[in-house]
């Protein structure tokens, strides 16, 4: 251990997304290759001597306790746990986290060391994995609110690869087998079908961890919500969601030394007639079993919506992935002017 192929794969995956800024400590991790990376894992991250590093991924992450703070992390999957090496700026981002993060190393802040916070989720504590729409993100759930993390990969390939690796590692866990199912009688088998709600598609792994995938109803609910935002101008039957993608909205900050741009996470939804930007809650839904009350905000909150027919042009950046797109819309004051004119002019 480890094989040449695994070393090469982990080295290739050890690249920070170019559009996201990280602290010096994580830049150091991203500069490691091959053996140095594995040695770093065993020397600084791993909790058990005989665990093996199986997969590495860079991703934005959200915690259930701090749903508004998205932070960059290096996610390391081993045969014992999932480790999240976090950007050290995260600790100072929210003063309400003092109970969540034990700041034992605060006396080292001014030294020449670059510290990273490492959040550990042991595989034995893992209960379920919820995969988001179109594999744009996934949520890992443990046994308490402290153990719920969403990885916003914004990339179906990265999500798929991580889930496959996680399933392979979970297969190595020795867990007690589930009890044998009790034979149901005829009446209980056919009498409790009136729930009226279609459950999400669940796959229960041999390690008893649930992998939950969204069903078609979620797209239906989203289409209904989008139609509602369109003031009922569209027939719900003819409304098709053509694209759902997690993206960033670029806000230019002027007046600074150099015109910087801040990236605001948004969910972009394209229908046959409109383009929408939503603020989506990626961490609170579906509700964890221990949640005593619903989240403070809805899953989808409309941030902006424009009609495709008002789209004037689309400007494309020539940089490498991720691609920047600028949508330029006609600034029409009264959007429904033409519609009202035709109604008045041609009668009912």
From TrEMBL:
Keyword Hydrolase part of the UniProt annotation: no
Boundaries of every PLEKHM2 PH domain copy: 114-178
A GO-annotated cellular component: endosome membrane
Pfam families hit by this protein: PH_NISCH_C, PH_PLEKHM2
Subcellular location field: Cytoplasm
GO biological processes: Golgi organization; lysosome localization; regulation of protein localization
The keyword ATP-binding is annotated on this UniProt entry: no
Record keywords, A-Z: Cytoplasm
Domain called Nischarin C-terminal PH: residue spans: 241-347
GO molecular function, one term: kinesin binding
Main location: cytoplasm
PANTHER family registered for this protein in UniProt: PLECKSTRIN HOMOLOGY DOMAIN-CONTAINING FAMILY M MEMBER 2
Protein name (Swiss-Prot/TrEMBL): NISCH protein
Species name: Circaetus pectoralis
